[in-house]
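Q: Sequence in, structure out?
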Amino acid sequence: MTAHAPIMRAQTPALEERTIAEIQFSPAQPLDPSDLAKALPFHKGDSFRAAEVARAIDGLFATGRFDDIVVEAEALGEGVIVRFRTQPTWFVGNVAMQGKVVLPPNRAQIAAAGQFSLGTPFHDQDVAAAVESIQRMLKSNGFYNAQVKPDIQRDDKTQTVFLTFTVQEHKRAKYEMPVLQGQTGLPEGVIVHATGWRAPIIHLWRQVTDARTSGGVRGVLAKYAGQDRLTAQVDLRKVDYDSQNNRVRPTLEINPGPKVKVTTVETKVSKRVLKRYVPVFEEGAVYNDLLVEGKRNLEDYFQSQGYYDAEVDFRVQPPANDLETIEYVISRGSRYKLVHLEIQGNNYFRTPIIRERLFMQASAFNLRHGRYSEAFRRKDEENITDLYQSNGFRDVKVSTTVDRDYQGKAGQVAAVVHIEEGAQWLVDRLDIKGMNQIAETDLASHLSSSAGEPFAEVNLVNDRNYVLTYYSSHGFPAATFQAAWQPSGTPHRVNLVYTIQEGDRQYVRDVLISGLRTTRRGLVDRTLRIEAGDPLSPVAELQGQQRLYDLGVFARVDTAIQNPDGDTDHKYVLYSFEEANRYRLTLGFGAQVANFGTPSTTSLAAPAGTTGFSPQASIDVSRQNFFGLGHTVTLRGGYSTLEKRASLSYTQPRLRNIPGLDMTYALLFDNSLDVRTFASKREEASVQVSDRFSKSVTGLVRFAYRRVSVSSVVIPVLLVPQLLQPVRIGMLSANLSQDRRDNPTNPQRGIYNTADVGLAGTPFGSQRSFARILLRNATYYRLSGHLVLARQTRFGIIQPFSVPSNLDAQESVPLPERFFGGGADSLRGFSFNQAGPRDIGAPLVPGGPASQPTGFPLGGNALLFNNVELRFPLFGQNIQGVLFYDLGNVFSSVGNISFRFHQRNLQDFDYTVHAPGVGARYQTPLGPIRFDIAYSINPPAFQGFSGTPVQLLQCNPNLPPSALPGFCQSSRQSTGRIQFFFSIGQTF
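A: Exactly. Output:
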């Protein structure tokens, strides 16, 4: 029974005014003690009154936790026992799916088909309806023989029901030849091909899915639309299932309708423009709303082309001879150019603040005729008015004068926006009434309206929203807010009164977690940060949900308040989980085309690299939620002709439950062949702690211990044993980055700074000692429209110390640890890693003659790069052009950094190389595809060797020149003036 009428079993008149000796509930009452005291108007020891029992029944029903209540009263000596026999209300908890589910549909879609909402009342009859709904979904996806078995588990303490639906899908059905009804006008095979239900060429019928069925109908409509039959109708009348063959036969009723011709009158417009701006082509239908939208779009198009007075109308001709004609009547008027836009009368706001809110815009590089129309003018006036009124200028007036023949030149337009600001209204005093449980100081500093601040109605609305949100987030869902104002007596000043009714405060009774399988409950509790006794806050509830999603281990996190409408102050907060797949596989493929190469054991020609093609492949395998703690184990591999890399990492996020504080342990193997001089091998173990200090600032501290070695060495001087031996490097480093770019993959504005500092030394087990600093600063400015100026500067130092006695300072830094530069992402005046010092020949023994120079790059201990790019639209929205200017170099040491333009001689590489160039960017979902071509103004020249490594060894510097073979002759070479690059992603 659910009526609120009192149900009494006893002769209550005989018990009136007796003392209540005991109050019993059967079964045990589920309410929090404070909520029970609120619902019951009497207690043990009070006098028994039937009227109060009736009030108690109403109060208990109001809690929403009872479906039926019967009260029994019986005498106990001189007293009364009051016994409440209740039938509890059950509430929906977790809804889970079991069994093998083949996509589509996914588990979340199947669960949603049951139409259960977390925290809402549950009724047994809902289960049968849910099973029927799930089976309909499965049938629509081809599982006609699927079986769905429900299982219901109840938690008496919390009145929560947990539902599990076990699905057995069996085999998915396939399509067969559909039944076509109506005057199709197309061959049957063409229509079947348009549905996509049968694979082309092999003509095998595909499996049934709901998306494929509806997509087939859209495919037929698109086929007719491609023939300009925009009014075609294709209806899926029925779907017949053949259980014997497990086949589905759809029935389509088709009415192709007449062909539709969209044309223009008075003004010629290309079909490409019509298809872009008249939505009947995109929608594949002809409705009056779409035609009106096309009218507005065409008016906007012509106004953007300078026809500010353009007027567009349309008319639909009745169908005749299987053709329906839609005519857009376009009167362009004269063509204008908005050459001058001025703002006058503004004192409170600076002109740039107002200008950025205007639709009107004077002609510029990317807007040839400017932008003006009467609609734009009215909208701009409204925007300026709203801006001033929101800052207290209640009497502001905005108007615009337009000069159609500006400075006597026909077709030129000037617009002047006139602003009469008027007086600014201010708040004299603000009184807040009704705040009893919240301190006024907690709110006052966040209000838009306070003494001395501008007075505006929009500020009152903002204050109302803030106050109610604040109260709701602190457990007052029924709080109300009223604002009133009156003149204060001082001209243009008002007194405000805010009246707040707080209502009852609600609290979290407990947090109910369901759906966890692998994840540990402690991880969820630490992440939620919601406990019993906290104020009931929807804001905290949703923030906890977001933090749980941020863990990356859940596919779905649902949250709700159980029994939200019940009259109780202590409520359960529910979280229902569906864990994500624990394994993730990612494959990647790409390529680079540029001047680069690999070490060669057969030829020393082209030390500056040769044109090459480097295919790339990568694989990432991740095991998420390791041990149920939210940790991640990742195995990464990459392969290309330039680099082979493999790594294994273990990431522990939210260290000490601090968001953004992560610890990572990693093992790395890397074999790089991107420097012509040598191949480098790196075997490394590292531990890293990273933290996000703010939205834009992150930092990390990292300790790495690695073994670096070189192979495929092609320069004899590098055969010195000290340089060939593997070296152990222990380095402690720190990195700080600030990223305020609007879009990291293709920034238009913002700033990006990084600072990386490292120290290698014997205290860390390192065989070499040096300090390393690498700084980067990049800024992005939107000049106008889509014109972007981007610049980047990078500066790096490697400073060795405690140099071994048998090496000089530069040689003490292992080759793989030195700076190398040049290429698509650094200095485009060089091919990959070709900047900086090169082999000029050196004594094989101290004091001896120099060996034969080869010109191969050796890397340096300092770098300075500067890149400037002007990015602009080239063709449409997706193709961007770039003009760039790169300068800089890799230097032998920080003391040798120089801005000289010319080399002193063929042994001098410590000077600045300049390289202007052009490029193009094609925008894709993965980032821009990039092509750059650079011209090096002053590329370095050097002495090279065109023979083989074996021949180079025969060029003994101890022999007289007459005894040397003929091939022991150096040749003057250069890195080249033209460099080109093809890759993915912006340069910086």
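The longest strand covers residues 610-626.
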